[in-house]
Amino acid sequence: MSELNPTPEVAPGLTSTGERLDRFDGKQPVLEVRDLNVEFFVDGDWYPAAIDVSYDVRPGEVLAIVGESGSGKTQSSMSLIGLLPSNGRATGSARMDGEELLGLSHKQLSSVRGKEIAVIFQEPMTAMNPVYTIGYQIVETLRQHFGTSPKEARARAIELLRMVEIPDPENSVDKYPHQLSGGQRQRAMIAQALACEPKLLIADEPTTALDVTVQAEILMLMRDLRHRVDAGIILITHDMGVVADMSDRVMVMKDGRVVEDGTADQIFYHPQHPYTQALLAAVPHLGSVAKDGGLQAVEVSEVAPAAADGAPAPEYAMEAEGLVIEYPGRGRVPAFRAIHGLDLNIRRGEVVGLVGESGSGKTTVGRAAVGLLPVRGGSLKVNGVEMAGLKGHALREVRQSVSMVFQDPGSSLNPRIPIGESIGEPLLLAGYFKDPEARLALGSGAPAGGSHISEKRAIANRVEELLDMVELPRSMRNRYPHELSGGQRQRVGVARALALSPKLLIADEPTSALDVSVQARVLEIFQELQREHGFACLFISHDLAVVEMLSSRIAVLSKGHLVEENSREEILRNPQEAYTQRLIAAVPVPHPAEQKIRREARDKLLMADAPSTLAKAREKASAK
Amino acid sequence: MRNENNEIVGHELGGVPPRKAVEITTSLENTGDLGQYAEQLADQGPGSEDLSHGRGENAIELKEVEGLSQGRIVLRRFLRHRGAMVATVVLTLVVLLVATSIGWGPIPGWWQFSPNDIQDVVNPNGAPTWSLSAPFSFGQHPFGQDNIGRDVFSMVMRGTQTSLTVMFIIGLLATAIGTLLGSLSGFFGKTTDNLIMRFTDMVIIVPTIMIGAILGRMVGGASPFTLALALSFVTWPTMARLVRAQFLALRELEFVDAAKVAGASNSRIMFKHILPNAVGVMIVNATLLMASAILLETALSFLGFGITLPEWSLGNIISTYQTAFQTRPFLFWWPGLFIVLIALCVNFIGDGLRDAFDPRQRRIPTARALAKANAKKAAREARAAAKVAAPAAGEVA
Question: What is the interface size between A and B, counted as CB pairs within 8 Å?
Answer without folding.
Answer: 190
